[in-house]
């Protein structure tokens, strides 16, 4: 229990530092979106109109400490103001509309890639020297291909040449969003190509790391002892070798879950998928600092929560972490 409380305190301190940096960095950058919009009028706005525009976009005449307290209030209430890129929608509305797509597609595909890659890595490490080792260079080659280039090739072959799948989008425009069979089947159909890109590109990394850790773990004394005791091969492979070899991959998986939003930008831009990655790309183009700040905050929280869950899993999987 003391170990868990100590880890929780560390993550709370890290969250405070990350959120504070997320507040400071946009404010030390030169200019702001409201100024950029005002400059487009080349001095045609009166001082009262400029002040009204600043108030409209939430830029009040307050000192930095008051803004910092207001920012923490926004963190706890979820009210980050108006989005410049999607005006007059609020930041919370934009995130709420796009978060569903990213969490469903990117998270499911990340988990699927981890499960497939880890399972293949366990088998390749257990039966090293067999034909399963041929999977390593193939998947490594696929993982080394530039992400955007692989996505473009898939679009060219399966969407343009063969016309098997739609070119872009998240669902057919003829369908209404809701829990109905028409929308669900359309969303799955539109998600096949981006999902394939993510899974194929991620399997190789998990496979080779798990295979190498399995080879190292199989040479440990406790595995040899289990073999000498006559335990079944299945029990040795999963309970003794795979369980311990999986610990480094578990930490990497936690990090990948935390970065699903940031890592989805290329996929969602290429396929014009309506997720947070596309929203972040448009926000960066429009210098939409409130929206970018909220997305970065979301990424920060996801990274910390994912790593906290990984540490909790470590405590249960590795008894050595519970030692004082």
From TrEMBL:
One of its GO terms (biological process) is transmembrane transport. The keyword Transmembrane helix applies. The keyword Zinc-finger does not apply. The chain crosses the membrane at residues 9-29, 99-126, 147-167, 187-208, 245-271, 291-317. InterPro entries: MetI-like, MetI-like_sf. This is ABC transporter permease. It is found in: Cell membrane. GO terms for cellular component: plasma membrane. Keywords: Cell membrane, Membrane, Transmembrane, Transmembrane helix, Transport. Residues 99-310 form the ABC transmembrane type-1 domain. Belongs to the binding-protein-dependent transport system permease family.
């Amino acid at each position: 229990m003391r170990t868990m409380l100590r880890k929780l305190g560390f993550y709370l301190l890290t969250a405070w530092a990350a959120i504070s940096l997320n507040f400071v960095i946009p404010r030390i950058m030169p200019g702001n979106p409201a100024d950029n919009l005002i400059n487009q009028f080349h001095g045609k706005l009166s001082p009262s109109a400029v002040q009204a525009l600043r108030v409209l976009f939430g830029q009040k005449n307050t000192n930095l400490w008051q803004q910092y307290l207001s920012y923490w209030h926004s963190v706890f209430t979820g009210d980050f103001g108006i989005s410049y890129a999607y005006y007059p929608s609020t930041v919370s509305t934009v995130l709420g509309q796009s978060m569903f797509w990213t969490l469903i597609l990117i998270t499911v595909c990340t988990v699927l890639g981890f499960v497939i890659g880890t399972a293949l890595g366990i088998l390749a490490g257990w039966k090293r020297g067999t034909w399963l080792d041929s999977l390593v260079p193939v998947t490594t080659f696929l993982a080394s291909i530039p992400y955007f280039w692989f996505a473009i090739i898939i679009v060219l072959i399966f969407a343009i040449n063969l016309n098997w799948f739609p070119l872009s989008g998240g669902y057919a425009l003829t369908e209404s969003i809701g829990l109905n069979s028409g929308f669900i089947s359309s969303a799955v159909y539109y998600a096949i190509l981006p999902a394939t890109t993510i899974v194929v590109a991620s399997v190789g990394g998990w496979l080779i790391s798990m295979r190498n850790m399995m080879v190292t773990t199989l040479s440990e004394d406790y595995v040899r002892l289990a073999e000498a005791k006559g335990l079944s091969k299945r029990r040795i492979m999963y309970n003794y070798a795979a369980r311990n070899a999986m610990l480094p991959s578990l930490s990497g998986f936690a990090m990948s879950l935390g970065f699903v939003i940031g890592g989805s930008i290329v996929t969602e831009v290429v396929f014009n998928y309506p997720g947070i990655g596309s929203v972040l790309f448009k926000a960066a183009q429009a210098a939409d600092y409130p929206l970018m700040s909220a997305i970065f905050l979301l990424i920060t929280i996801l990274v910390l929560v994912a790593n906290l869950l990984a540490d909790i899993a470590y405590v249960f999987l590795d008894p050595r972490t519970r030692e004082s």
